[in-house]
Design a protein that fits this description.
The complex is a heterotrimer of chains A (357), B (424) and C (500).
Chain A (H helix, E strand, L loop, with lengths): L2 E2 L4 H11 L4 E4 L16 E4 L6 E5 L4 E5 L4 H9 L3 E2 L11 H7 L6 H4 L2 H4 E7 L5 E5 L11 H5 L8 E8 L1 E2 L3 E8 L4 H8 L7 E4 L3 E8 L1 H15 L2 E3 L16 E6 L5 H7 L4 E5 L4 E6 L3 H12 L5 E5 L2 H5 L10 H11 L14
Parallel strand pairs in A: 1-3, 2-3
Antiparallel strand pairs in A: 4-5, 5-9, 6-10, 7-8, 7-9, 11-13, 11-14, 12-13, 12-16, 15-17, 15-18, 16-17
Chain B lengths: L14 H4 L13 H6 L6 H12 L6 H9 L5 H5 L6 H15 L4 H13 L3 H17 L7 H9 L12 E2 L7 E5 L4 H5 L1 H13 L2 E4 L9 H5 L3 H15 L6 E4 L2 H7 L2 H4 L7 H10 E3 H8 L11 E4 L3 H4 L6 H8 L5 E3 L14 H4 L1 H17 L4 E4 L2 H13 L5 E4 H9 L9
Parallel strand pairs in B: 2-3, 2-4, 4-5, 6-7, 6-8, 8-9
Antiparallel strand pairs in B: 1-3
Chain C lengths: L16 H14 L4 E2 L2 H5 L15 E3 L4 H13 L4 E4 L16 E4 L6 E5 L4 E4 L5 H9 L3 E2 L12 H7 L6 H4 L6 E7 L5 E5 L10 H5 L8 E8 L1 E2 L3 E9 L2 H13 L6 E6 H11 L9 E9 L1 H17 L4 E4 L3 H12 L1 H4 L6 E4 L2 E2 L5 H15 L3 E6 L4 E8 L6 H17 L18 H4 L2 H14 L29 H4 L7
Parallel strand pairs in C: 2-4, 3-4
Antiparallel strand pairs in C: 1-2, 5-6, 6-10, 7-11, 8-9, 8-10, 12-14, 12-15, 13-14, 13-18, 16-19, 17-19, 18-19
The chains are: A alpha+beta (357), B alpha/beta (424), C alpha+beta (500).
Chain lengths: 357, 424, 500
């Protein structure tokens, strides 16, 4: 499969328009290559590796515009020098901005800052026929026109190539405190935290230990951490634990993402018994790792559906994915198909990856 | 296309007032009929639009009049309006035009005439009283048309009549000489309230002057667009009170008070009367307003009750008096005030609205009763006889037992150290 | 319920047989109280909160249930009759402007709160529920609904979804899009679809995200699931008076640069202060050329640290009076002035245009100076009320139409939008494009950008029946590829219509 790595958006557009490939695969940092359905081998692979510039960091406005191939870690370094950060913390090392947006990947701090859709304020995309389009802009508050950025978040590249993104930024936290407490069932603790006046950045559960992260002014962080400790117990430290927010699956295993209404944490965890897990405990998201067959998956889906949630196979070896219904039932899928048909009528983009739609 | 518009030249709803409306919609959630039906034309903004359409060549049609008629005149929209639209002036002008120019059905005419030949005439009401009382006692219920049934159901239980003396001297040193409006409905159906008013005022050091022959204040006529009649009533009332050398004229019915405070405007076209009207209006006080202005003299004794205070529209919106009654209640040891949800929404009484639009009034009454009941208070307190009748009926319909009292009755009970005055 | 109808239609659109037939069907199916056909009554629906555009709807329907909405839309679709959804009619971009040959579907009777699940931090409501009533539904549990447009006691959730409404507090809490997790939608063909729900991250495309802010052009929302958040432990509201807009602007930049993220930062200039004072006597610092309202909320420890910082910054920037709200009532009093400012303009000017534009925050001082210059040159007064924290300007262009100032005022208003675009901002921060600003869309986006956006529309509404004529300056034919249009538009060539 031939690969192009254009260094400009125009070149990217030209590459797909001029060669008019019958199928196109998009590749970013490759950190989530095994995510989604089994990708078909494409006629052309478009890599964003050379589209890796930070186009503009308007620090006074707390806004950054970056090309899709820029790696999140590199972007954070640059922003950090100005006391700012892009409040996304998915754990995959080497991930690019484009890949994070395309997969709507999230990490622990989504509790406070949301997911890519919540921070993306402008996007430039290249459609399968080479059309370049833009939506949003570089101001946070903006309701002019449809918000294509939202549609491209989590579309796994099936609507077009994300070429450039503009994000809202946040000030870097001044101090971090982590309250850690071992718990068999964190349900009550998380409920009381959610109802408390505290505003943690993250509340994570790894199957044995609940970690509550507070980021604020030094004095405020100390005060909150102490009050949280008084509420749920445990110990306060000045750093997050190792493996904080890491995906719980190992290579060769099946990785799942299960969601549920946030009040159902305890029953959701009960459903996940037997899996290694990493939970965004106050957000209604569970990442699971372990051995899964079609029967187990069906059972989990029925279980989480009772809490209005879904179970998606995130990562697995292709052989295993072929035996599983990767996406499961998708609410409103007919409309999604119509959207896909409009953007990519020949279905050239990232075939197989979002096969439910 | 219509050629002639809805309005003639005699005081149409003024276009310069209509232009004040910027169509922001802030009035919608406070309008009782919009809350009920969600229709633009049954909202203040929609009615203003209809008035403007009338200037724009649309005739005074049945649908247009229907929406004006459905307005309760509660004036909650006036309070809510950030642009200062004088909806009160607009609807008043509109109603006068409708009354003069729109031919109503025979049935409507008959009902309106029944209302207006009895309510504003204390003596006629008085003459009717023994029959009504006997009728109530008999337990008989005649099969009457819906609107008359509404009228009959609203009647409070009638006790024996108790007239107020022409002059009741202050107890203790005299602090003021006040006139008292006896009211038409108040006098006949809420004699206890008038008696309590006299006791409280005298206890607070007021000489109370209450001419036994005093007609209607004209509020009812005014709110229904019967402008000429209202003017007649106003002149008579002014003539009655003018020579009495009063410091203020105290009113214990919110609807009457709001009309009397506006005599200057009502009489603006009457030669020689405009300034007399304005001078009279300047002396008018709601009883709560007056008692706060006067400051407490008599000792308040503890009453161990929780009280849901209902803002009468003509007190809260038309006269902008909301803190005085609460202040008076708070000053009584032991009284706990509970606020009612949707306080700004009218109870549906609105003068004779509950007689002319019984269905809408019934729905609003039920809504109010539910919100009142939700407070769990011992006593519902308000400052208007119409509200008392309306809420009493609505509570009774839902089988909710709750005592009701006019605010002066609560003060009276406190000053006389007799909680039983608040009723069973 | 009201008996609204007098005569069945015919008079208004004598040639429109389709509408006549629909009116009869709707009366039969929904009852006469749900259908408005009388001209005098229809006219009360001819505009929303933006009265500059008016169009008498062919027919108004007031359904009471989602099923009835579906039925009405289905019959419209089958008859190829356009339709427009309307909530409380408070929009400021003409987004609910009716279509003369179409049906206006008024959702003010869909007011049920269907489900309150505080434990899941969700409330499920029908579209006619008033914004503030969502907060009321969870207030006793210590929660609230964060998006707070200035019209929050009137405007409905359905309209908020259409416009992606913000409000003073969206600086910290985000917009409607950040708080809607599920939607039930009657699609333009009359079918009903659900997207999202109580749980986060539904698989597939983020259709909820695409629908929020689509200005009623993709369907009619009949149920909305929103996220509610816990009431903060402490709220502090600072009111600071400045001698100049520049000083106030400097304070805003310094606050943000210090890493403080206030819940809201609002600025008003001397004209808007005057209007607010005359409307609600809000008691702002006397003689202030600019006031700043800074609201901080969150955990007590955090807020007190931030409060000290904000007060110090305001003082350094030259604030001559700094007041911190004593209690909740005092806070309401401070906000009352700000929230009433728009509507209060009626007290200082016969006519006015409310503009809504956005600039990057760092461009604020320059843009404000440019606006002042523009005002001086044209003799048209401009009052400024705005969300300073996110650069969202609301210049109020004051004029008197009886003195022939309308054209000059419109020119000033348009020039302000151009300034916003020149500074890399947006033509609308929260009021939406609607009918009012579609002509400006071409300045912010290329024709191709707009065509690609309309691919979404084609997926939902290939017949272009759902709120037609809004948002986009040029309607496009579905099936045609973006960026490929050359020469005369096929619709024009076929004599079927004008490209406008």
């Amino acid at each position: 499969m031939p690969t192009v790595a254009p260094a400009t958006i125009d070149d990217l557009a030209a590459a797909v328009r001029d060669t008019a490939p019958s199928s196109i695969a998009v590749r970013g940092g490759g950190s989530k290559r095994d995510w989604g359905g089994v990708a078909e081998v494409a006629e052309l692979e478009v890599s964003t590796a050379a589209l890796d510039r930070i186009v503009e960091h308007a620090d006074g406005d707390f806004v950054v515009t970056v090309q899709a191939g820029a790696r999140l870690a590199d972007v954070q370094n640059v922003l950090g020098s100005k006391g700012q950060w892009l409040a996304l913390d998915p754990p995959e090392a080497g991930a690019t901005i484009g890949g994070i947006v395309a997969t709507a990947a999230s990490g622990p701090r989504r509790l406070r800052f949301g997911t890519p859709r919540d921070l993306l304020i402008g996007v430039t995309v290249v459609l399968a026929d080479g059309t370049v389009a833009r939506s949003g802009g570089k101001v946070v508050k903006n309701v002019a026109g449809y918000d294509l950025g939202k549609l491209f978040c989590g579309a796994f590249g099936t609507l077009g190539v994300i070429a450039q993104c503009t994000f809202r930024l946040h000030p870097s936290p001044r101090a971090i405190r982590c309250v850690s407490v071992p718990l068999d069932d964190p349900g009550d603790a998380v409920r009381s935290l959610r109802r408390s006046p505290f505003r943690p950045s993250a509340i994570e559960y790894d199957g044995t230990r609940l970690s509550i992260v507070v980021e604020a002014f030094e004095s405020a962080a100390d005060a909150q951490a102490e009050q949280i400790r008084a509420l749920v117990g445990g110990e306060v430290s000045a750093a997050v634990p190792e493996q904080f927010g890491a995906r719980p699956w190992r290579s060769g295993e099946v990785g799942l993402k299960a969601t549920f209404r946030v009040g159902a944490l305890s029953p959701a965890l009960a459903l996940a018994r037997g899996f290694r897990l990493s939970a965004h405990a106050a957000s209604g998201v569970l990442w699971l790792g372990g051995a899964v067959d079609a029967g187990v998956l069906d059972e989990l889906r029925a279980g989480f559906a009772a809490y209005d949630g879904s179970v998606v196979v995130v990562a697995a070896p292709d052989g295993m994915k072929r035996k599983l219904d990767v996406w499961g039932p998708v609410r409103g899928v007919e409309v999604m198909r119509r959207i896909r048909d409009q953007f990519d009528p020949d279905r050239r983009m990232n075939r197989g990856v979002l096969d439910a739609v | 296309m219509p050629s002639e518009g809805a309005w003639d030249e005699r005081h149409p709803p003024p276009t310069e007032l209509l232009d004040d409306c910027v169509h922001c919609g802030f009035c919608l959630p406070t309008c009782p009929t919009y809350v009920l039906w969600g229709e633009e034309m049954d909202s203040p903004r929609g009615r203003i639009y209809l008035m403007a359409e009338g200037h724009d060549g649309e005739p005074l049609s049945e649908p247009m009049v229907t929406h004006f008629d459905r307005c309760l005149g509660c004036m909650a929209c006036v309070t809510a309006c950030p642009s200062g639209v004088q909806y009160d002036r607009l609807i008043e002008a509109t109603r006068a035009q409708v009354e003069r120019r729109f031919p109503r059905s025979a049935r409507e005419r008959a009902l309106r005439s029944l209302v207006f030949k009895t309510f504003p005439y204390p003596r006629r009401l008085h003459a009717l009283r023994p029959f009504l009382r006997a009728y109530q006692k008999s337990g008989l219920r005649l099969p009457l048309p819906a609107k008359l049934t509404a009228m009959q159901r609203l009647l409070p239980p009638l006790g024996p009549a108790s007239p107020v003396a022409e002059l009741t001297p202050a107890r203790g040193p005299r602090r003021a000489r006040v006139g008292m409006l006896l009211g038409c409905v108040q006098r006949e159906f809420f004699a206890d309230v008038n008696a309590a008013t006299v006791r409280v005022l005298t206890a607070e050091g007021c000489d109370v002057v209450a001419p036994s022959v005093q007609g209607c204040c004209g509020a009812l006529s005014l709110h229904m667009g019967r402008e000429d009649e209202a003017v007649r009533f106003a002149k008579r009332l002014i003539a009655t009170f003018e020579p009495l050398g009063l410091d203020v004229i105290v009113v214990n019915a919110a609807g009457c008070g709001s009309a009397m405070k506006d005599y200057g405007w009502l009489l603006r076209d009457e030669a020689g009367w405009a300034s007399r009207g304005a001078a009279f209006s300047a002396k008018v006080r709601d009883v709560s307003e007056w008692l706060v202005e006067l400051g407490p003299g008599a000792t308040r004794h503890a009453l161990d009750v929780s009280v849901a205070y209902h803002d009468a529209c003509h007190l809260a919106h038309a006269q902008r008096i909301t803190s005085a009654p609460r202040e008076l209640l708070r000053a009584i040891p032991g009284v706990e005030i509970r606020e009612i949800e949707e306080a700004a929404i009218c109870c549906g009484s609105a003068g004779v609205y509950n007689l002319l639009q019984p269905q809408a009034a019934g729905e609003l009454g039920a809504r109010k009763a539910a919100n009142v009941a939700a407070t769990g208070a011992d006593v519902l307190v308000t400052a208007n006889p119409g509200c008392l009748m309306q809420i009493r009926t609505a509570l009774a319909d839902r089988g909710i037992p709750m005592r009701l009292a006019h605010i002066v009755e609560v003060l009276d009970a406190s000053i006389r150290r007799d909680p039983t005055l608040l009723g069973p | 319920m009201s008996a609204t109808t007098s005569a069945l239609p015919g008079a208004e659109n004598p040639g429109n047989v389709a509408l006549d037939g629909l009116a009869r069907e709707f009366v039969a199916a929904l009852g006469p109280a749900a259908v408005v056909t009388d001209r005098v009554q229809l006219r009360t629906y001819e505009c929303d909160g933006l009265t500059a555009y008016r169009c008498i709807p062919g027919l108004v329907v007031l359904p009471e249930t989602a099923e009835q909405v579906g039925y009405v839309v289905r019959r419209c679709a089958q008859s190829s009759v356009p339709f427009v959804a309307r909530g409380a009619g408070t929009g400021l971009s003409g987004g609910a402007l009716p279509v003369a040959t179409g049906v206006l579907i008024v959702l003010s009777r869909l007011t049920a709160v269907r489900n309150v699940s505080v434990d899941d931090e969700r409330v499920v409501v029908e579209p006619g529920v008033v914004n503030l009533d969502v907060s009321r539904a969870v207030a006793a549990d210590g929660y609230f609904y964060a998006p707070d447009p200035s019209s929050q006691q009137v405007c409905t959730i359905g309209g908020n979804v259409a416009e992606n409404s913000g409000g003073a507090h969206c600086l910290k809490y985000g917009f409607t899009a950040h708080h809607v997790t599920g939607l039930e939608v009657v699609l333009p063909d009359g079918s009903v679809s659900r997207f999202g729900g109580l749980a986060p991250d539904p698989p597939g495309y983020d259709v909820v995200g695409a629908l929020v802010g689509s200005e009623g052009t993709l369907g009619i929302v009949t149920e909305v699931t929103v996220r509610v958040v816990a009431v903060p432990e402490r709220v502090e509201t600072v009111l600071a008076g400045f001698r100049s807009m520049d000083d106030a602007g400097e304070a805003v930049s310094a606050i943000v640069a210090a890493g403080v993220l206030p819940a809201a930062v609002e600025m008003m200039d001397t004209l808007s202060i005057e209007a607010a004072e005359s409307a609600v006597a809000c008691g702002y610092p006397a003689g202030a050329q600019a006031v700043l309202i800074v609201e901080l909320d969150g955990p007590a420890a955090e807020v007190s640290a931030e409060l000290a910082e904000v007060e110090a910054i305001c003082e350094r920037a030259g604030a001559f009076e700094i007041r911190v709200a004593r209690d909740a009532d005092d806070r309401v009093a401070i906000w009352r002035g700000r929230k009433s400012a728009f509507a209060a303009m009626g007290r200082i000017s016969r006519d006015y245009i409310v503009q809504d534009g956005v600039v990057p925050r760092t461009s604020l001082p320059q843009v404000l100076r440019d606006i002042a210059l523009l005002s001086a040159e044209s003799g048209i007064r401009v009052a400024n009320v705005f969300h300073a924290g996110d650069g969202n300007l609301h210049p109020l262009v004051l004029f008197d139409s009886t003195r022939g100032e309308t054209a000059a005022a419109e020119a000033v208003s348009e020039r302000i939008l151009e300034l916003c675009i020149e500074h890399g901002g947006s033509i609308t921060g929260e009021h939406g494009v609607g009918n009012d600003k579609k002509k400006h869309m071409g300045r912010m986006f290329t024709e191709v950008d707009l065509d690609v956006m309309q691919l979404v529309r084609c997926a939902f509404d290939p017949q272009s029946l759902c709120n037609p004529g809004k948002v986009f300056p040029t309607p496009r034919l579905c099936g045609e590829r973006p960026g490929r249009r050359t020469g005369v538009h096929p619709v024009q060539a076929a004599g079927l219509g004008e490209v406008f």
